[in-house]
Specification:
Layout lengths: L8 H21 L11 H6 L6 H12 L2 H14 L5 H27 L4 H9 L2 H33 L14 H21 L1 H29 L3 H6 L21 H14 L4 H8 L4 H10 L4 H13 L4 H7 L6 H6 L1 H10 L4 H38 L5 H25 L6 H11 L3 H9 L5 H22 L10 E3 L12 E3 H23 L17
Antiparallel strand pairs: 1-2
Helix pairs in contact: 1-8, 1-9, 1-18, 3-9, 3-12, 3-13, 4-7, 4-14, 4-18, 5-11, 5-13, 5-14, 6-7, 6-21, 7-8, 7-18, 7-19, 7-20, 7-22, 8-9, 8-18, 8-19, 9-14, 9-18, 11-20, 12-18, 15-17, 17-18, 18-19, 20-22, 20-23, 22-23
């Protein structure tokens, strides 16, 4: 085995700090960009509904192509092999789903002044209970999603300070790295508070430029170094015994249902995440929204390239030496795939470029964390607090959203401190299983008033409860969570059971049964009278 390298911090650290300083400047400068009254939620939370197709394209990419995609998906390929490429398939599908329903959602928001997912539910159903319930579901589901971004930041810091005096200890990352995380989040909270979604938008453009340039260059050099794609896949081998594949490269047919339902559930989650709905409402026009979504499919390209690094990392001696240094368990090794490859390929020849890769990934975790926390703050202020304090002023509403967005960021830090990062990718799949239970209450009501509020609420509650129950059962009620694949007939997948499903799709299926049957019964017993729809949301602007 090759001797583990020591990052050249004399060059990497100053370059990293320099590029990060540009990110900070953009975040605070954004308060002056397309200047508006940031004391209200309309300007702070949805950027005054002024984003054109170009900025929308980058914002959609930033909130979907997160640290989860950049680090955790290659981590899945590294540990699971062929099954990990599931993320490429759903990334290719997700914007097709989105373009079918999000333009209609935007049109409703423009017509009636909706600013959040909860606004839409309340405005179209007239139900406070539905609005509050799914606002709380969205807020809760976003906490582990933000936590996943934090794990990605940890991976960058651990790699950057690897084999130095600041190296990680057996107990976790060093005090220096913890301090760096806290400082980064304080800065992020500062410019999010000041600039709102504008800061995240400018940050997303900057982040995406860095990630595209660095990933394409990194993959091109790495693939060339191992003799091309054919040679890379021919010589790939599993770092451990993966639970879903007996062979690292060849897909296990028994995993077909698990693969397909995971792909479907995660693709559907795009239109259910509150921050994606928030970004939809920030777009200037329906035409700009459709164009931005249409172009966003190209993000599947760097994702595939990043995944490929998970296949070849063990064929690059310097990168393999970092991962197999004995300091990291299998789960966290995967998070280090891209940072280790960046150091292996550039530390000696161009350490400044290694720094660009690392800072691009680092910012790639911070930007979506900001976008998600803004959505959480919007939901809490507008669809929870306002329901119990109807006389809340527009300024007071925005202040609650701003302060709570900061609190949610640090809550995610606490989650990461409490939960081992070994199976961090499950943060996302568990949260997605919860959030997709809001799809009937959010989208069905845009097309028909046949569905009844009590059935939508009961179905959502059943879906959330059973998704959590199936997840716990799949993990034998033990922590940390290591899977979101539930074998409905009992035996585990590697014992030969092909009837294994993603827990979110199981929950959504049962949710739909309750919604459809419940609505049919209620409509038969008590036919709907003239629809009672809530008036336009307060403080909304065209």
């Amino acid at each position: 085995m090759a001797t583990a390298l020591t990052p050249d911090l004399t060059i990497i650290l100053p370059v990293f700090i320099g590029f990060f300083a540009v990110f900070i400047f953009l975040g605070f400068y954004a308060a002056r960009w397309r200047k508006g009254d940031l004391s209200g939620l309309f300007e702070w939370g949805v950027a005054g509904r002024r984003l054109g197709w170009f900025t929308a394209f980058f914002l959609f990419g930033a909130d979907w192509y997160t640290a989860f995609s950049i680090l955790s998906v290659p981590s899945s390929v590294f540990t699971l092999g062929a099954f990990g490429y599931m993320a490429v398939t759903y990334q290719a599908m997700v914007f097709a789903f989105a373009i079918l329903v999000l333009p209609r959602l935007w049109a409703k928001s423009k017509e009636k002044g909706y600013l959040t997912l909860g606004d839409t539910i309340k405005g179209e159903t007239g139900s406070k209970a539905l609005s509050i319930f799914f606002a709380l579901v969205g807020i809760g589901a976003l906490v582990p999603y933000i936590a996943l971004q934090v794990v990605g930041l940890q991976g960058v810091l651990v790699a950057m300070f690897f084999n130095t005096v600041y190296a990680a200890t057996a107990a976790g990352i060093s005090n220096l790295q913890e301090a760096a995380l806290i400082i980064a989040f304080v800065i992020l909270a500062g410019f999010t508070f000041t600039s709102g979604l504008r800061g995240a938008t400018l940050g997303s453009i900057y982040k995406d430029i860095l990630v595209w340039i660095s990933l394409i260059a990194l993959v091109a050099i790495a693939i060339t170094a191992v003799g091309g794609f054919a040679h890379a896949f021919a010589n790939a081998g599993a770092p451990s015994a993966p639970p879903l594949n007996s062979n690292f490269i060849k897909f296990n047919p028994l995993a077909s249902i698990a693969f397909s339902t995971s792909m479907l559930g995660t693709a559907l989650s795009y239109v259910a995440w509150p921050h994606n709905v928030n970004n939809t409402y920030a777009t200037q026009s329906r035409k700009n929204l459709k164009l931005g979504l249409s172009l966003a499919i190209v993000y599947a390209i760097p994702l595939f390239l990043a995944d490929t690094l998970g296949v070849i990392v063990n064929q690059v001696p310097a990168a393999s030496a970092i991962l197999n240094s004995g300091q990291f368990n299998v789960g966290f090794k995967g998070i280090l795939v891209i940072p280790a490859m960046a150091l292996a390929e550039f530390n000696s020849s161009a350490p400044w470029f290694a720094a660009i890769v690392l800072v691009g990934v680092f910012i790639g975790g911070l930007v979506p964390a900001a976008i998600m926390a803004i959505a959480q703050g919007n939901l809490l202020a507008r669809n929870v607090v306002r329901e119990f304090k109807p006389n809340l002023t527009a300024k007071g509403e925005a202040q609650i959203a701003k302060w709570s967005s900061a609190v949610f960021k640090f809550a995610a830090l606490g989650v990461v401190a409490a939960v081992p990062p070994s199976y961090n990718v499950q943060f996302y799949y568990f949260a997605a299983a919860i959030v997709i239970q809001g799809i009937p209450a959010t989208y069905f009501i845009l097309f028909t008033k046949w569905f009844r509020n009590s059935a939508l609420l009961a179905g959502g509650a059943v879906g959330v409860f059973l998704s959590i129950l199936f997840t716990l059962a799949a993990n034998k009620f033990a922590f940390p969570l290591t899977t979101t694949i539930f074998p409905i007939l009992g035996p585990a997948l590697n014992a030969g059971d092909q009837f294994t499903f993603y827990v979110g799709v199981l929950g959504l299926g049962l949710n739909l049964i309750v919604v459809v049957v419940g609505s049919a019964v209620i409509n038969a017993v008590k036919p709907r009278q003239a629809a009672t729809i809530a008036p336009p949301m307060p403080a909304a602007r065209p």
